[in-house]
């Protein structure tokens, strides 16, 4: 009797399931097709962005022998900084393989991880506590052996020199990278002495040369995703010229600028160190072709 009752109760549900089965099959089929279409679209976007990228680099301006952009590639950098960094040091040489990077994210995509994998040592400074936790987990063995130092700090013009000195890197280093999405100009201006052989800075491409523009200093500034951050390339050029540096290039996507200490420049770079010569506009839309197939990660490794 109970079984008959259940059958009676379930009969309408079975009827509905049977009635909707073709619709559910079509839904699953449509979902698979949409997934395939999404993959095809992503592939086409990568192909088109790569094609535009190559056409830009084929322009006469970028074919000049000493221009850096043609050397760009991405390993662990956000864009093509890894290749440009490598080319700069091929031209001027390497000394102590020490670096400082301010604003490193979770450690898996920045300007110095690729160098670290090649035996460099240095200091990472990051203000985001979640990123610091991820770094402490991923890079624990290297933090323990001292090849990598991580400092959790909100960088300001009033504490930057103390942070550098505290970690024993106040003398000449090979590379300084700064990207804090706000007070970059003011922090850079405050660093004394500034003896890095190469400096990488994020500039604000909104303000083309000859515009001089610097975000007003705000120790409590937090990046809000808008164009209100940092400084124009021209302002950075002028500031670093006073500190003894030459602008030697920018990356194609209009994100980072590269400066070399003037005693090292010699005849290694284009003999025009102006923002007008090296400025690149915002081309982040071209990054699609560089998106990795696999998620970025890091683990213990051997060099042999």
Automatic annotation (TrEMBL):
Protein's name in the database: Methyltransferase FkbM domain-containing protein
